[in-house]
């Protein structure tokens, strides 16, 4: 017993020392920084070398264990740098690669370009540049976080001059969207996929300047840090450049620099040492470990938890003993049956076996109950500790915000003219399919109607009479078409275009824009036909009504009159001088 307590104390002491050493032992961080400025076959870039020096200094100040800054690498040096960094990443918890220079997108794949690349044809990209997957492969061994930062979304001169071996091969503007397949991997672009980034008017790009300002903040989650970077770059560039992050992390906060430890003061948690001993006993999970803990801490919250853990162990021991007795009873029952023992002995053995099985089932149920109780108690412990930690963090955050508010000016919207704001909103409305006219900066009736359509299909309520920053942010958040495509009669929507509806032979397009079988229409009397019949009837009525020599009268729809001289009542025949008057009887004149 004393030996086990001694071992327990040794392990507790070792754990305490390990926990007290901080993040130096718990986390190893490495970074590779590349800045390519001096390109041999296109113009020199002013900022990448400066940006690499700035970002590399940031990683060093942040306490990274290894920071390798490389400038103006050709294809051989760049391959060597990635290979060497891959070896360092295998021993690291956090691995970061920053690249500034030219990049190119070919058929949806992103490539980083060394300084000696010529890229005379599109196939040269495969031999003279490095695909982004090669960079991801270098950081893949890192255990906790893999981060790639690309300031390579510039307007690329190689894409304008290279010859295409296949006419349909796509060479995009900026870099293409990526979706990392490995967990805890993030890829940050200086500009959204398909757009370009600015070098700025100073020696460092707006993206690099924002990175060194935001990323080293102690305890700041990376997702929020890159959100601040996005806001800073949008503000500096007048909303022309929007950084973007691809990939995802888990639910826990992940910061590039660990939060500063809170100095224990007079209000330090008195249960901290007890909690540490409890967690150590929990890791051991033995009866002796819990007994030693209860001897030291006989009462209180953690003592009750320890007693629950002991009950769980006792239930497991009872279950194991009952299972063993049930097994022995079954063996005895089988033995007697094999040896053809007397019926009474077999019945007794069967009863014993049944009782042992019932006891085993009861012990199993008791074990499950005790395990559930222990699990629930452990969950309550974690929730209580998390709530206490959150309360402390919230208090600290509130104090920091109050300090920051005292010295920091309130945030402002990007300084854009109303016409520039209108043009940006119109451009985004065109992208989501709600505006058909050009983005001319004139917020006219067509533009107002397009924002009304966006409100209808996006579920928003922006004032259509003006173009606002709020509406711009909401429209930019939509990844694709929002308003449906409307086509004229005889045309149908095919993706983002209207195509003519083609019906097979004998069919035509109806009013519902569907193909239906064509049918011959019966002739319909026109207004001219009706007018002609009325004229003939009036002429007949106006004719003189002298009696005929025969004294016969002819009647029709217009009334009765005498048969004209030289005529008689007869039937109508084609090819004769017969005339029909208004329907009814026919007057035949020779």
Structure overview:
By secondary structure, the protein is of the alpha/beta class. The chain folds into 6 domains: 1-22 and 271-295; 28-248, Rossmann fold (3-Layer(aba) Sandwich); 299-396; 418-476, no CATH class; 485-520, no CATH class; 531-589, no CATH class. The protein has 17 helices and 18 strands. The protein has helices spanning 2-20, 23-26, 48-61, 75-89, 124-128, 132-139, 157-161, 206-214, 222-236, 272-284, 287-296, 301-338, 343-407, 418-431, 445-458, 469-476, 527-542; strands at 29-35, 66-71, 94-100, 103-106, 109-112, 130-131, 145-151, 185-189, 244-248, 491-494, 497-500, 507-509, 515-517, 553-556, 559-562, 567-570, 578-580, 586-589. Strands 2-1-3-7-8-9 form a 6-stranded mixed β-sheet, with helices on both faces. Strands 4-5-6 form a 3-stranded antiparallel β-sheet. A 3-stranded antiparallel β-sheet has the order 16-18-17, with no helix packed on it. Helix 8 packs antiparallel against helix 9 and helix 14 packs parallel to helix 16 (469-476). The longest helix is centred in the middle third of the chain and has 65 residues, at 343-407. It starts with a helix and ends with a strand. The relative contact order is 0.05. Residues 5-25, 407-414 and 573-583 have low confidence and may be disordered.
């Amino acid at each position: 017993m004393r030996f086990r307590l001694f071992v327990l104390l040794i392990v507790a002491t070792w754990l305490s020392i390990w926990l007290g050493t901080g993040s130096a032992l718990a986390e190893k961080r490495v970074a590779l920084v590349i800045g390519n400025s001096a390109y041999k076959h296109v113009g020199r870039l002013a900022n990448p070398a400066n940006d690499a020096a700035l970002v590399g200094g940031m990683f060093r100040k942040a306490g990274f264990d290894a920071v390798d800054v490389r400038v103006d690498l050709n294809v051989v040096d760049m391959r060597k740098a990635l290979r060497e960094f891959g070896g360092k990443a295998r021993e690291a918890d956090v691995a970061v690669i920053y690249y500034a220079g030219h990049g190119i997108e070919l058929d949806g794949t992103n490539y980083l370009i060394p300084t000696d690349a010529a890229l005379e044809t599109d196939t040269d990209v495969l031999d003279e540049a490095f695909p982004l997957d090669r960079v991801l492969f270098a950081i893949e061994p890192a255990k906790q976080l893999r981060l790639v930062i690309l300031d390579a979304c510039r307007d690329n001169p190689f894409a304008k001059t290279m010859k295409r071996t296949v006419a349909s091969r796509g060479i995009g503007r900026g870099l293409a969207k990526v979706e990392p397949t490995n967990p805890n991997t993030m890829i940050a672009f200086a500009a959204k996929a398909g757009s370009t980034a600015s070098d700025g008017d100073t020696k460092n790009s707006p993206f690099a300047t924002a990175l060194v300002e935001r990323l080293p903040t102690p305890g700041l989650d990376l997702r929020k840090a890159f959100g601040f970077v996005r806001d800073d770059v949008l503000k500096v560039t007048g909303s022309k450049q929007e950084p973007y992050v691809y990939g995802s992390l888990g639910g826990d906060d992940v910061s590039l620099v660990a939060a500063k430890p809170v100095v224990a003061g007079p209000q330090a948690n008195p249960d901290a040492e007890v909690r540490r001993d409890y967690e150590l006993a929990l890791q051991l999970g033995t009866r002796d470990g819990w007994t030693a803990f209860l001897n030291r801490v006989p009462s209180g919250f953690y003592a009750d938890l320890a007693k629950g853990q002991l009950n769980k162990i006792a239930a497991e021991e009872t279950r194991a003993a009952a299972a063993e007795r049930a097994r022995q009873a079954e063996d005895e029952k089988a033995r007697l049956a094999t040896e053809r023992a007397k019926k009474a002995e077999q019945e007794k053995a069967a009863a014993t076996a049944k009782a042992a099985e019932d006891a085993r089932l009861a012990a199993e149920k008791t074990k499950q109950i005790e395990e559930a109780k222990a699990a629930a108690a452990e969950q309550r412990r974690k929730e209580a500790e998390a709530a206490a930690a959150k309360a402390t963090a919230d208090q600290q955050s509130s104090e920091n915000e109050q300090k920051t508010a005292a010295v920091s000016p309130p945030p402002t919207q990007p300084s854009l003219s109303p016409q520039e704001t209108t043009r940006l909103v119109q451009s985004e409305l065109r992208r989501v399919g709600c505006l058909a006219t050009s983005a001319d900066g004139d917020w006219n009736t067509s533009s107002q109607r397009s924002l009304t359509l966006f409100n209808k299909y996006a579920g928003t309520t922006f004032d259509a009479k003006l173009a606002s920053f709020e509406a711009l942010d909401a429209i930019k958040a939509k990844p694709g078409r929002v308003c449906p495509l409307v086509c004229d009669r005889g045309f149908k929507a095919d993706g983002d275009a209207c195509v003519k509806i083609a019906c097979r032979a004998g069919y035509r397009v109806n009013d519902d824009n569907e193909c239906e079988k064509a049918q011959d229409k019966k002739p319909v009397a026109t207004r001219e036909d009706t007018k002609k019949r009325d004229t003939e009837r009036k002429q007949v009525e106006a004719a003189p009504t002298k009696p005929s020599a025969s004294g016969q009268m002819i009647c029709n729809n217009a009334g009765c009159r005498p048969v004209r001289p030289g005529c008689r009542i007869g039937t109508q025949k084609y090819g004769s001088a017969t005339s029909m008057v208004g329907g009814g009887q026919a007057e035949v004149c020779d």
